[in-house]
């Protein structure tokens, strides 16, 4: 991989000016770095998996109707084909085959990380006391974080072969050290 984290972040910030989407990009980066150790090859995969998480929605703010084609093209121009494929596959309705653990992990982490972030925002102590049971209860409430597609969450879990409670706990644990940076540390 020749793409550096700094170059990826600079590119994300050029295309994504809004703080909420930048925080989501950073949160998914954090989770994907941890996922590289749990579902991938560990340290050898960490940088690439983190960058895939960071850039997966990089073109969404400016070109939502063309998402993810622009970021996928940008990655392919840099010969980052594995990253491009994972980003192209991070939504099941695009019908891109899941060929690698990276592809599956990005799908399994993206939507659920966003949902967990939303759960944190309505808790006085944010992520610090969030447990899988609370997230599962909120997932059943279709009005809560209504734009989160529950079917995508479930498809990701199935592809990766993980249980919801275990994966929620994994994501919560990955996010906790970054709670203040991500704005999910609570109001206290």
Description:
The protein has ten helices and no strands. With 188 residues, it is mostly helical. The protein has one domain (5-180). Helix 2 packs antiparallel against helix 3 and helix 6 packs across helix 9. The longest helix is centred in the N-terminal third of the chain and has 21 residues, at 19-39. The protein is globular and about 45 Å long. The model has no long low-confidence stretch (mean pLDDT 96).
In short:
The protein has helices spanning 5-15, 19-39, 43-55, 69-77, 81-88, 101-121, 132-140, 150-160, 164-175, 179-182. With 188 residues, it is mainly alpha-helical.
Query: Describe the biggest sheet?
Result: none
Q: Helical segment tally?
A: 10
What does the overall shape look like?
Answer: globular
Output the radius of gyration: 15 Å
| Contiguous uncertain segments of 5+ residues | none
Annotation, overall tally of beta strands: 0
Give average pLDDT, whole number: 96
How many structural domains can be distinguished in the coordinates? Answer: 1
Helicity level, as a percent range? 55-70%
Alpha carbon gap, first and last residue: 41 Å
Which sequence of SSEs, written as H and E, runs from N to C?
HHHHHHHHHH
Q: Strand percentage, roughly?
A: under 5%
Structural class: mainly alpha
Main traits of this protein?
mainly alpha, 63% helix, globular, 188 residues
SSE inventory with pairings:
Elements: H1 5-15, H2 19-39, H3 43-55, H4 69-77, H5 81-88, H6 101-121, H7 132-140, H8 150-160, H9 164-175, H10 179-182
Helix pairs in contact: 1-3, 2-3, 2-6, 2-9, 3-5, 4-5, 5-6, 6-8, 6-9, 7-9
């Amino acid at each position: 991989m020749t793409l550096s984290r700094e170059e990826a972040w600079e590119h994300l910030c050029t295309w994504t000016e809004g703080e909420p989407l930048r925080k989501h990009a950073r949160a998914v980066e954090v989770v994907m770095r941890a996922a590289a150790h749990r579902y991938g090859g560990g340290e050898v995969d960490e940088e690439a998996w983190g960058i895939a998480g960071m850039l997966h929605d990089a073109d969404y703010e400016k070109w939502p109707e063309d998402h993810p084609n622009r970021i996928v093209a940008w990655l392919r121009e840099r010969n980052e084909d594995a990253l491009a494929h994972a980003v192209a596959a991070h939504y099941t309705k695009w019908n891109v085959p899941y060929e690698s653990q990276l592809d599956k992990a990005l799908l399994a982490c993206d939507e659920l990380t966003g949902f967990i972030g939303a759960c944190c925002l309505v808790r006085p102590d944010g992520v610090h006391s969030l447990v899988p049971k609370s997230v599962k209860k909120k997932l059943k409430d279709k009005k809560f974080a209504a734009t989160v597609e529950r079917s995508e969450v479930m498809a990701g879990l199935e592809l990766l072969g993980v249980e919801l409670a275990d994966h929620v706990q994994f994501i919560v644990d990955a996010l906790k050290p970054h709670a203040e940076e991500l704005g999910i540390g609570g109001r206290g």
